[in-house]
Write a structure and sequence with these properties.
297 residues; mainly alpha
C-alpha cells in the first residue's frame, strides 16, 4: 500500500467512523477499488485507533472529569457516587454486549457479512431503522413525553444502547448510526444520544484495535499456514499504517465536532437518504459485476 493510498483511506475512515454511514463498508469498498488483494485485513481495524484518539481529544474534558470521579470512588469505596463516575460504569455496562458478540461471533460475522452485497442490504436495513426512530421521536414529542438527558441514563438504557452497538459489528450498520438510533428509541435526547454514543465507542474501538495489533505481532513472530503477511513485516506497511491512522485522527476530530453540532439540531434524515443510495449502489455494483462481492480477509 502506498502512502497516498493510506492517506486516502485515512480520510475515508475519519469521515465515516463518526457519520452514521458505516466506516467498515466504505473502507472495504475503497480498498477494493484501489485494487488491494486483501481488502478486509487488519489495516481496516487498526486505522480506527486514529479516530479513537479523535474522540479522546474532543471529549478530553469529559474524560478527565470521569477519571477524577473514578479516583474519588476508589478512595471512598462508593461506586457511582458522582454523575461522572456513574456515567463511566454505564459505559462499562454498555460495552458488555459488543465484547461478548465480538468474541463469540467474530468468525461467523467475517464468514457471512464481509461481503459487499450483504453490506448493501445491511446499510438499507439500518437506514429504515433510522427512519423509524425519527417517526418514534416525532410521536414522543407529539405526546409531550420527556426525554432523558445524559445524567438521567438508566442501567436498562445503557444496556439497550450497548446491544445496538453490538449490531454494528455487521459491516454496513455503522457504530454511531446504531447507537444513536438505539439511544433515541430508548428516549434519550438528541444531545445525550450523540454524547453517549461517542463515549460508548471508546472501550470497544480501543479493544478491537489493540487486539488486531497483537494478532499482527503474533503473525509476525509465527506466520500462519495460509501465508498471511503481518502489517509489521515491512517498513513500508508500517509507514502506511501510521499515515492512515494519523490522517484518520485529524479528519475524525473534525467529523465528530461537526456531527455533535448537527445531531443537536437536526434529524437523521440526510443520513437515511445517503444510506439508502449507498446500499442500492452497492447492490447494483455487485450484481452488475463492476466490483467483486467478496471482501473477506
Amino acid at each position: 500500500m502506498s502512502i497516498w493510498e493510506a492517506a486516502a483511506l485515512g480520510v475515508v475512515q475519519g469521515l465515516t467512523e463518526f457519520l452514521p454511514v458505516s466506516s467498515t463498508a466504505h473502507l472495504l469498498v475503497a480498498r477494493q477499488l484501489l485494487g488491494h488483494a486483501v481488502p478486509g485485513d487488519a489495516f481496516t481495524t487498526v486505522v480506527q485507533l486514529g479516530t479513537l484518539v479523535a474522540v479522546l481529544a474532543y471529549f478530553r474534558a469529559d474524560i478527565a472529569a470521569i477519571l477524577k470521579a473514578l479516583l474519588h470512588d476508589a478512595r471512598t469505596l462508593r461506586f457511582g457516587s458522582r454523575p461522572e463516575s456513574r456515567l463511566a460504569w454505564l459505559i462499562a455496562l454498555g460495552s458488555v454486549p459488543v465484547v461478548v458478540a465480538g468474541f463469540t461471533l467474530k468468525k461467523w460475522l467475517k464468514a457471512n457479512f464481509y461481503d459487499l452485497g450483504t453490506m448493501g442490504l445491511v446499510a438499507i436495513l439500518f437506514a429504515l431503522l433510522m427512519a423509524g426512530v425519527e417517526v418514534w421521536v416525532a410521536v414522543r414529542r407529539g405526546r409531550n413525553l420527556p426525554e432523558t438527558d445524559e445524567r438521567g441514563i438508566t442501567v436498562a438504557q445503557a444496556l439497550w444502547v450497548g446491544v445496538w452497538q453490538a449490531l454494528a459489528l455487521m459491516p454496513g450498520a455503522s457504530r454511531s448510526g446504531t447507537t444513536v438510533t438505539g439511544a433515541l428509541f430508548a428516549g434519550l435526547s438528541r444531545a445525550a444520544a450523540a454524547r453517549f454514543s461517542f463515549l460508548l465507542s471508546l472501550p470497544s474501538v480501543f479493544g478491537a484495535g489493540v487486539k488486531e495489533l497483537y494478532d499482527e505481532y503474533k503473525l509476525l513472530k509465527t506466520p500462519d499456514a495460509a501465508d498471511h503477511v503481518s502489517l509489521f513485516a515491512s517498513s513500508d506497511d508500517l509507514a502506511s499504517l501510521a499515515v492512515g491512522t494519523i490522517v484518520s485522527g485529524v479528519v475524525g476530530y473534525a467529523a465528530v465536532a461537526w456531527l455533535m453540532h448537527f445531531l443537536k439540531r437536526y434529524s437523521l434524515g440526510v443520513f437515511v437518504a445517503y444510506r439508502l443510495v449507498f446500499g442500492v449502489l452497492l447492490l447494483v455494483l455487485v450484481h452488475g459485476g463492476w466490483v467483486a462481492a467478496g471482501a473477506r480477509p
